[in-house]
Design goal:
ribonucleoprotein; two-stranded antiparallel ribbon; Large ribosomal subunit protein bL28c; Ribosomal_bL28_bact-type; 20% strand
Length: 128
Amino acid sequence: MFPSFPSLAAALSQPFKRAQLGLFHGKTKQYGNSVPFSKNKTRRSWLPNIQSKRLFSDALGQMVRVKLSTRALKTIRKCGGIDQYVLGTKSDLLGWEGMRLRVAVREAQERRASEASASSSPHTHASP
């Protein structure tokens, strides 16, 4: 129908939809067995370690509140900040929130670049 719907449908069909609302870096819900001394196995699940953090974005010039996994936090520190992380990470690891941040950071960087080029361009006014 529309060209943007297949990617949206692929994101909606993921098994752990909560991961779309934060920076989970590919971490999802895991399943396994709880095995006590009696060896009677029962199914259980493990959720990723999610933290709410406020990270400073250099491009946006403000703090950004995100839910992220500890794996994503480690990768953000390795990349050197939230801006470099969202710009350099594959889109399937970011989710909706990460893609929203990527668009916001790119727009802010383009806006600053255009303002810098406009202010550094030589003026053609002749001084008397």
